[in-house]
Amino acid sequence: MPENEKNNETNLDREWMIRDCDIYSDEYSDCTSIKARFHQYFVFGTTLDCSQWKRDCDNCWKWVKNKDYKAAKELIKSECNRHLERLRNHYANDVWEKRSSPPEDWEKPLPEHMIQEYEHSFLHLKAKEMRGDIPSESVSKYCSIM
């Protein structure tokens, strides 16, 4: 293997961020559909630029078919930007104080009314069944498909 390919391989430490190429294609199709365009115009007052999805799709196929490291790096950069944009409001939030540890009483028992409601729930019966406390036939009679 040539030396430059070895260097390129080690630089793809975030290769796990690359999605299946069909996902990029679907996102581009969804973004450019008539329904999406109408929704974009309704929400934002204009249509959105979908060209990044197209570039990502093209780069993905270049990476999958030809092992084009430049395309893979561009795709990873695009995914990182998308990730940062999605979390921008979370990081900019100055209303809530972020905790560094859970509250001191996080494991306190539930109130009595919640325990009573839980004892008569399907979840409680299913948990008993999984532990082997009751036979499975008694739980299935509570489940119905309509």
From TrEMBL:
One of its GO terms (cellular component) is synaptic cleft. InterPro entries: Pants/Emi1-like (IPR021475). It is found in: Synaptic cleft. It comes from the Eukaryota. Its main location: other. Belongs to the UPF0545 family. This is Synaptic plasticity regulator PANTS. It comes from Agrilus planipennis (Emerald ash borer).
